[in-house]
Amino acid sequence: MNADLLQSIIAAGLQCEHLAVEGDGRHWYATVVSAEFEGKRLLARQRLVYATLGERIKTDEVHALSMKTFTPAEWATKAA
Questions:
Q1: Of the candidates 76, 74, 71, 79, which has an alpha carbon nearest to the alpha carbon of residue 16?
Q2: What is the mean pLDDT of the chain?
Q3: Where is the signal peptide (predicted)?
Q4: Does residue 46 contact residue 2 with C-beta atoms inside 8 Å?
Q5: How far is CA 9 from CA 17, 31, 39, 50, 73, in A?
Q6: Which tens digit of pLDDT belongs to each residue from 47-71?
């Protein structure tokens, strides 16, 4: 697994306005901005991202994924 592949897997399952993934091949860090997070709490947002990984997270293909999740409005205030 590499960062580009992981990013494309997440992007295929979740409509993202911004997505950045980095890591060492085992431990990953993602920043995800999606309108699908509107009205959802942190845990629900993380579940949406984990759902894009399917069995990859269960089989240890993706060992660890830390993430920051934002709605587009939240991201706009971060970027300002």
A1: 71
A2: 92
A3: none
A4: no
A5: 15, 14, 24, 11, 24
A6: 999 999 988 888 878 888 999 999 9
What per-residue confidence (pLDDT) applies to 75? 95
Residue in the structure block whose two tokens are 């992981």: 6
**Tell me: the pLDDT tens digits for 32-44?**
999 999 999 999 9
Whether 12 has a pLDDT exceeding 90, the answer reads yes
Q: Which domains does the chain have, with CATH numbers?
A: 3-79 (3.30.300.90)
- Cβ contact 69:29 at 8 Å: no
CA distance 74 to 3: 24
